[in-house]
Amino acid sequence: MVIEGLDGAGKRTLADGLTTALGAKGASVASLAFPRYGKSVHADLVREALHRGHGDLADSVYGMAMLYALDRSGAADEIRALRSAHDVVLLDRYVASNAAYAAARLRQDAAGEVVKWVWELEVDRFGLPRPDAHLLLRVAPAVAAERAERRAETETGRERDAFETDDGLQRRCAAVYDELAASGWLAPWHVLDGVAGVDLEALATTLLGQ
Ligand SMILES: Nc1ncnc2c1ncn2[C@@H]1O[C@H](COP(=O)(O)OP(=O)(O)O)[C@@H](O)[C@H]1O
Ligand SMILES: Cc1cn([C@H]2C[C@H](O)[C@@H](COP(=O)(O)OP(=O)(O)O)O2)c(=O)[nH]c1=O
Questions:
Q1: Neighbouring C-beta atoms of residue 142, cutoff 10 Å
Q2: What's the number of domains the chain is made of?
Q3: Which of 81, 105, 181, 203 has its CA 20 to 30 A from that of 1?
Q4: Which three-class secondary structure state does DSSP give residue 110?
Q5: From CA 168, how far away is CA 29, in angstroms rounded?
Q6: Domain Thymidylate kinase-like: where (predicted)?
């Protein structure tokens, strides 16, 4: 089960809440967040590039997308193992993040070239496990930006990065996410209203009933 959405949408908060709600129903839950900072060299390079390290690396849409994909590729076996050991595996961001952000950066839509490239690279070539479903935590870009900014003020080590401070990118990314959800890209999508709030108990029941 993959949670997707803009920076600051509340994905980590949802993952924590859902883990508790699923656990209360007796389900065993494992979770993993991408990029795997501190666990994969590719993820650490991403973070450094987003904070202006490594020269002009962050300017390359395909270069950055390749690093995110390599991080996931290194986790493929772990995901498979978690899947066989747990009822639910919750992933905070996955392949669709690459599709949404790369398309938004290149001003393409969900039918564009880079979204196809992401699929060919990560699904066809790297053989990453396909999710059963996506949860799109949908909030207006302005709300996500405000939450990310507040988090940056209160949590150390969470300074907003090059993508998070780019309002235009976040707006275009929201539009691509909506298109990916509407087309059922890679797996079915459930759209959640991240402003009204999510009924965790009802969501846990729905997910376990699938
Ligand atoms: N439903 C919500 N209402 C208000 N604030 C929220 C909500 N969900 C998360 N937040 C806050 O917004 C910030 C970003 O949430 P987080 O879960 O870290 O987002 P993400 O993982 O999508 O970047 C955090 O400070 C969090 O406490
Ligand atoms: C996982 C992933 C993230 N991203 C982007 C989304 C975010 O703007 C950025 C960092 O990921 P994020 O999960 O938001 O990390 P942080 O803990 O720093 O908030 O990387 C991609 O472009 N492709 C991907 O595959």
A1: 11
A2: 1
A3: 105
A4: coil
A5: 35
A6: 3-182
Burial of 100 (0-12, 13-18, 19+ CB in 10 A): buried
CATH code assigned at 13: 3.40.50.300
Separation of 36 CA from ligand 2 center, angstroms? 10
- The ligand 2 atom nearest the CA atom of 95: 25
Q: Which of 4, 6, 7 to mutate to test the pocket of ligand 2 (most atoms within 8 A of CB)?
A: 7
Q: Is 189 in the pocket of ligand 2 (CB under 6 A)?
A: no
Query: Measured from the CB, is residue 93 less than 6 Å from ligand 2?
Result: yes
Distance CA 136, CA 119 (A): 18
Give the domain extent around 117. 2-209
The model's pLDDT over 74-86, given as tens digits with 9 standing for 90+, comes to 999 999 999 999 9
- The CA 29 to ligand 2 mean position distance, Å, reads 22
pLDDT at 22 over 70: yes
Using pLDDT thresholds of 50, 70 and 90, give the confidence band for residue 210: low
Closest ligand to the CA of 139: 1
Q: Is the CB of 170 under 6 A from ligand 2?
A: no
Q: Model ipTM?
A: 0.97
**C-alpha closest to that of 121 among 62, 33, 180, 181:** 62
